[in-house]
């Protein structure tokens, strides 16, 4: 028998809603085995503020994570500076990064089958003098990989990005044959490994309006995108495009596709978030580990009020579980049945 999936869950920015979302999960029985990577002191302070009663079970590698209602397995990470809800403190920044490092290293050494991240506050970490551009880049460096791919997904739609957090003026120069090639290969490979899609069908958006309209509205499609896609098609990757982004997101195209590859952040993600905000999940492809996250931020204004919605976190956990299970089926581990 294959052992159940165990996921690490980092509680994110201490002043945000992450800690209470973790506590909310403990109020009902869970299908997944979760270990919250956080300060025990922080979780105790937040449940006292919210009037919750959760038994925080100490957890160490080798233990079995609890799944019963009213209980939560916690791997305590020391170093918390301030446990106040709603008010950030740069003094918590190293602690936040320590939770991410603990979870990621646990995934790399096989302690965990994947990690799920609650939102962090990038600005506060940078205020502490620590260069930090986000979970994705942090995990990319920690895992030592050259390229990662950001993909957001709902039950109905998956959108991956060629470029992520760049000013719009810098996007055209970043759309290179090398980047498109790396991203498309990762997307194709990981759809097979983590989602069980045997022959992924990928729609590719053009960069310019009307996909350049034959060169009249830009030549990136003619000179960069289409030649690169054609080379990738010869490798066996099923790519359709470049397509105009204003008509790509319609049933005519989406009904016969497994994912969309958008050229930049605000080309693809507004459509996905309009379609499924609050139940979408942020997925990092190209890592040697499973990593998913919520589709929202720290919501400092909601922290400590008890009004935070855990819907996206539930989705992120469910998708991480599915990804880890598919990976086992694709590449059975030593000692596991296939």
UniProtKB/TrEMBL annotation:
EC numbers: 1.1.1.262
Binding site for a divalent metal cation: 165, 210, 265
Keyword Metal-binding in annotation: yes
InterPro entries: PdxA (IPR037510), PdxA_fam (IPR005255)
Major site of localization recorded for this protein: cytoplasm
Key words, A-Z: Cobalt, Cytoplasm, Magnesium, Metal-binding, NAD, NADP, Oxidoreductase, Pyridoxine biosynthesis, Zinc
Pfam families from the UniProt entry: PdxA
Pathway: Cofactor biosynthesis; pyridoxine 5'-phosphate biosynthesis; pyridoxine 5'-phosphate from D-erythrose 4-phosphate: step 4/5
Binding site for substrate: 135-136, 273, 282, 291
Catalytic activity, reaction form: 4-(phosphooxy)-L-threonine + NAD(+) = 3-amino-2-oxopropyl phosphate + CO2 + NADH
Origin: domain of life: Bacteria
Location relative to the cell: Cytoplasm
Needed co-factor(s): Zn(2+); Mg(2+); Co(2+)
Presence of the UniProt keyword Magnesium in the record: yes
Family from the record: Belongs to the PdxA family.
Oligomeric and partner information: Homodimer.
Role according to the record: Catalyzes the NAD(P)-dependent oxidation of 4-(phosphooxy)-L-threonine (HTP) into 2-amino-3-oxo-4-(phosphooxy)butyric acid which spontaneously decarboxylates to form 3-amino-2-oxopropyl phosphate (AHAP).
Note from the entry: The active site is located at the dimer interface.
Protein name per its UniProtKB record: 4-hydroxythreonine-4-phosphate dehydrogenase
Protein's organism: Marinobacter zhanjiangensis
Biological classification of the source: Bacteria, Pseudomonadati, Pseudomonadota, Gammaproteobacteria, Pseudomonadales
